Amino acid sequence: MNQNVTSGAGHSHSNPREKSDLTKNQSLVFGALSRAEGPLSAYTILDQLRDDGFRAPLQVYRALDKLVETGMVHRLESLNAFVACSHPGCDSHQTIAFAICETCGKVAEISDEALESRLRELAREDGFTVKRAVVELRGLCAACR
User: Fold this and answer.
1) 15-23 contact pairs (CB < 8 A, 24+)
2) Confidence bin at 131 (pLDDT 50/70/90)
3) 3-state class of 79 per DSSP?
4) 29: which of 17, 63, 71, 129 fits an S-S bond (Cβ 3.0–4.6 Å)?
């Protein structure tokens, strides 16, 4: 099993070209998420960036849409929140999994080729083609058990 597990805080994205192609707003949003200890909602990001000229949620959502599209940021559906990518090359994976601690809120990003392959196989057996999948696992991290 080829598995990569990383937590979301204090990392840098691997593709510098992507960073240099970002608009000012995208860079500010990505910076806020990169510094965060856990997932952030769009409104939390807006509050953090008001001193940088952000006034409306639409500014944050536009930046987030582009960052998600490039794979630099992931959306956690169950939390309605966002996290910066925590490992290099994640945009090449069709399947990303997140382990979310229900006590402390820590999020670990997991990429696993065997999981990705098995999910594609299950979908194919049902005549479905997977474009992208996000799996969210909820439970307790090692520190909270």
Assistant:
1) 15/88, 15/91, 18/70, 18/72, 22/66, 22/67, 23/63, 23/66
2) confident
3) helix
4) 63
